[in-house]
Amino acid sequence: MDAEMERNVDAEKEMREWCVALPKVELHAHLNGSVRNSTLLELAKQLAEKGIIVFEDVKDVIMKNGRSLPECFKLFDLFHILTTDHDTVTRIAKEVVEDFAAENVVYLEIRTTPKNNEAKGMTKRSYMNAVIKGLKAAEAVDVVLFDSNSRTNDTLTCTPTIELDGDTKKKRIYVRLLLSIDRRETTLAALDTVNLALEMKDQGVIGIDLSGNPVVGEWETYLPALQHAKELGIPITIHCGEVANRKEIQAVLDFCPQRLGHVCCLNDVEWKKLKSLMIPVEICLTSNVMTGGAPSLELHHFADLYNAKHPLSLCTDDCGLFSTSLSNEYFLVAATFGLSKPELFHLAQEAVQYIFADENVKKSLKEVFKDAGKRLTVLSEIGAPN
Ligand SMILES: CNc1ncnc2c1ncn2[C@@H]1O[C@H](COP(=O)(O)O)[C@@H](O)[C@H]1O
Ligand SMILES: [Zn+2]
């Protein structure tokens, strides 16, 4: 390796480490898409021992790199076979929150589809209870799950701290839950999910998501449930424009949810409308490039939205499925679009504005960033050349 290559390797390593140290806000992460491959393989082995699946077949599917949109949804069907019993749901929830905290995600909105599964004695409610059990079981990190003003003894827990240098103290992470409506669901099932979100609002559930295979289902099926959530004052985020469904993109923009995911396949008119509505966008670079929603990293619509100062936040979507991490998504933005450290810091900090949790949490997070800003010494670099 010549001297210049060596310098580039060192610079990349340093930037990657900086992106890990940066406190981050994750607003778009699906629970079952965020499971470690090692856990999926372990679960597959256990099911193979019981004769339910053939391990080698499943291993090939998990380890194969194909991640087109249809392949992703085939994989989700497989993941759900592996993960959907109460104990496993608890395990993956625990691991996922620990993994996000380990890379200095300080606020996490994790979304998941509550599932009925008669054979496993599972209801949407018992599924969610299993998720919450997992979040509470995460011993390696300090998970703050409840609204700070709903429990008196949380005042102390909300004192902002963040560990940037070493594991001497537990990392603290605020976690909130979004309940996903799967596009395969009926109107009644979608309404059940919204009612469950209302019932569980004191247990960390703060919003509703619409997701699932974008070529399946009709907007009119979910609209009554989304309308119901809106009337109840529950914040909503919607997967929008993963495919070029003109009628639905128009309807979603007219519905005007609190946030949108992806916004890949918008035409000029829709693009203009999105920008005038200023709806914050959850940007998922790796996911969009892998599933074909964006032609390449370089041509990703992040650049257009960023230059237009549109509200946005970087997210992973499915960090397990796409072998990425939120730190890596920040690194990709630096490497692809040339953002400097102060610009990356500002991007991470701005995401606090778009969280669904209350003002107390926002206030705490602002303190976290203020403190981290000093430690990362980025503030002194603002205005300096890259
Ligand atoms: C790649 N782009 C995507 N587009 C749309 N929906 C997606 C998605 N990635 C994940 N999901 C949704 O999240 C579920 C898995 O997590 P949970 O079982 O809910 O925890 C998938 O079944 C799908 O409905
Ligand atoms: Zn998603």
From TrEMBL:
Its cofactor is Zn(2+). Belongs to the metallo-dependent hydrolases superfamily. Adenosine and AMP deaminases family. Keywords: Hydrolase, Metal-binding, Nucleotide metabolism, Zinc. This is Adenosine deaminase domain-containing protein. GO terms for molecular function: hydrolase activity; metal ion binding. Transmembrane segments: none annotated. GO terms for biological process: nucleotide metabolic process. It catalyses: N(6)-methyl-AMP + H2O + H(+) = IMP + methylamine. It comes from the Eukaryota. PANTHER family: ADENOSINE DEAMINASE, ADENOSINE DEAMINASE-LIKE PROTEIN. InterPro entries: A_deaminase_dom, Ado/ade_deaminase, Metal_Hydrolase. Residues 23-367 form the Adenosine deaminase domain. The keyword Zinc applies.
